[in-house]
Amino acid sequence: METAVSVIIATYNRRAMVAEAIASVVAQREVCAELIVVDDGSTDATAETLARIAGEVRAGAGGVAMRIIAHREKRGVAAARNTGVALASAPIVAFLDSDDLWRPFKLRRQIDFMATHPECAIAQTAELWMRDGVQVNPGMRHRKRAGDIFLESLRTCILSPSAVILRTSLFRALGGFDEGLEAAEDYDLWLRILVRHEAGLIDEPLVIRRAGHAGQLSASVPAIDRFRILSLLKLLAHSDDLSLEQRAAVCAVLAEKSRILAKGLSRRGNDDLAERIERLSVQAPNWIVGADPQLHHELATLRPLLTTTRRIEENRNDFHGF
Length: 322
Prior knowledge:
- By secondary structure, this protein is of the alpha/beta class.
- Helices cover 45% and strands 18% of the residues.
- Strands 1, 2, 3, 4, 5, 6, 7, 8 and 9 form a nine-stranded mixed sheet that branches.
């Protein structure tokens, strides 16, 4: 049977949770899938756990074939996912965060959806949110929606990796995740996709999204919006497909996020960088009509400053909960 979907799990020091995530993939019903697990330089017993599980999967009679790829050193979730997709053989790729779970018919429902909507390049399902083992209700701004959601996704990312399924050819054509982004790499990719494509939705909670545990990326990386600012600059500088309305919206959100980040930096005494970021909020309206040399200069010079966590680390209390 032809492999219908390639599932990519990137993991780092989550041996217990990744075992549960893998089990939820193996439990998928009525689907032929390959599972590629990328161990991104784990230093606990993740490698041994994955080897044991792979043996059990091979010995089983399910529809999932599993392989393990190991990075000797930690390279980040973007690089780990890109490694997985580079090896994918199926026409559709799905991601599962190693702390999340899928319900048994998640892949089957999405594969059928993509088959009946050939014009759809990316789709997702609704999610059930759990925090410390207790179900919580996400705010309205996180509610999943279908169609042209580019403008809505600028402030709040309403696509999530564990819920998404997309065509492998599209992922590769766009160059995958930006490996220079320590966080918000999904926000960056989704925006590049949503510029051109509408999103499909299966409004059924087929993903269990777990939060509140140690090592959660959104809680451990300070000032995540600095990466979103870089993503917005990249869009303005390199996307020729942005409409005037889209460019205006990107510029407005860039100015808004820049003001917030600059205030936080200033409170912590990082005045030089605060001034640079504040300047973006003033310059942003100039880029509504198109890119200019100043935009490319700001992107090139700010990228190394904003992607170096040690420059921001001391400010983490100011940026919590962006």
